[in-house]
């Protein structure tokens, strides 16, 4: 039997899709390739040798920028955002299974942050915390707490204002995923558990959570990866330190060696590692999910 001949439209669409993929991922692949330049390599092709030289330079530091500290800050913030996004998304998903007074207003308020310009969110949060700083300092002055006033810096920071700014970006995605999961969740499983004498917590722990576990892992992956490369919402709400994406953005105007590409490659690898771990965990949880179902 002769294979069916593809129409011309198929090849046109296939070529268009290939061009789109190349446009989307081509720049990332170019940066990865150029990061392996030799010691005499530059920022453009042709490559002058192949080596790990610029990764070594990156480990030594790029001028006054402490890449290691920025990496730790970004990892810590990403993990915190991931944990809070998962926690609040699951709790909200459980709460919205029943009709809540004012639930629609709460939902649209949370989701509205997705359509607001990121820089406006960042500026608003930064201004809010600066007003908070002024209020705290005023209290110290009023009660004569001169020592605390002198030692007080700012409430802006990684795990305060920056964490809140990132949550305005990650939490709506987590909520939407969780709502979709619970909309097709069969409550008969919980009813069967209650009939067998399970408490609400036991029902959630042994029935609901194993069934939604792959989706929870997906929400965690979304939370970390969205936080990991966030710039706009962090720029005005982080205080006097920088995350790795902000350092990378600043270095693009000062670093003129492939070490900047090496840094971009490292950040990309971290993202792929997190996604790979998430997919592996989902695959491991799937058999348990089917067993519970």
CATH C-level category of the domain at 80-243 and 270-292: Mainly Alpha
Task: Please bin the fraction of helical residues.
Answer: over 70%
Total beta-strand segments: 0
Count of separate DSSP helical elements: 12
Full CATH superfamily name of the domain at 80-243 and 270-292: MetI-like
Termini separation comes to 43 Å
Order of helices and strands: HHHHHHHHHHHH
Sheet-strand content, in percent, reads under 5%
In terms of per-residue confidence, which ranges show pLDDT below 50 for 5 or more consecutive residues? none
> The CATH topology of the domain at 80-243 and 270-292, please?
MetI-like fold
Query: Which class best fits the helix and strand makeup?
Result: mainly alpha
Radius of gyration: 24 Å
CATH arch. level architecture of the domain at 80-243 and 270-292? Orthogonal Bundle
Biggest beta-sheet profile? none
Mean pLDDT: 87
Shape: flat
Describe this structure in words.
This protein is mainly α and 293 residues long. Helices cover 73% and strands 0% of the residues. Helix 3 runs parallel beside helix 7 and helix 3 runs antiparallel to helix 9.
């Amino acid at each position: 039997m002769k294979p069916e001949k593809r129409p011309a439209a198929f090849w046109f669409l296939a070529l268009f899709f290939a061009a789109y993929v190349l446009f989307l991922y081509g720049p990332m692949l170019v940066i990865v390739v150029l990061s392996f330049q030799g010691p005499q390599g530059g920022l453009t092709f042709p490559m002058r040798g192949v080596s790990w030289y610029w990764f070594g330079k990156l480990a030594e530091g790029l001028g006054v920028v402490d890449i290691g500290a920025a990496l730790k800050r970004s990892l810590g913030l990403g993990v915190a955002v991931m944990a809070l996004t998962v926690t609040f998304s699951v709790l909200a998903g459980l709460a919205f299974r029943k009709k809540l007074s004012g639930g629609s207003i709460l939902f649209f308020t949370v989701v509205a942050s997705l359509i607001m310009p990121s820089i406006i969110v960042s500026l608003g949060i930064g201004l809010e915390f600066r007003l908070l700083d002024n209020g705290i300092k005023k209290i110290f002055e009023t009660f004569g707490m001169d020592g605390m006033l002198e030692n007080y810096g700012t409430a802006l920071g990684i795990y305060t204002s920056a964490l809140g700014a990132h949550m305005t970006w990650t939490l709506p995605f987590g909520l939407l995923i969780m709502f979709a999961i619970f909309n097709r969740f069969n409550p008969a499983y919980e009813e069967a558990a209650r009939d067998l004498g399970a408490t609400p917590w036991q029902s959630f722990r042994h029935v609901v959570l194993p069934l939604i576990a792959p989706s929870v892992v997906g929400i965690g992956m979304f939370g970390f990866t969205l936080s990991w490369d966030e710039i706009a919402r962090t720029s005005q709400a982080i205080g006097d330190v920088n995350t790795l994406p902000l350092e990378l953005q600043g270095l693009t105007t000062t670093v003129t060696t492939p070490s900047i590409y090496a840094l971009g490659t490292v950040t990309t690898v971290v993202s792929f590692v997190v996604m790979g771990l998430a997919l592996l965990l989902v695959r491991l949880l799937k058999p348990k999910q089917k067993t519970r179902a």
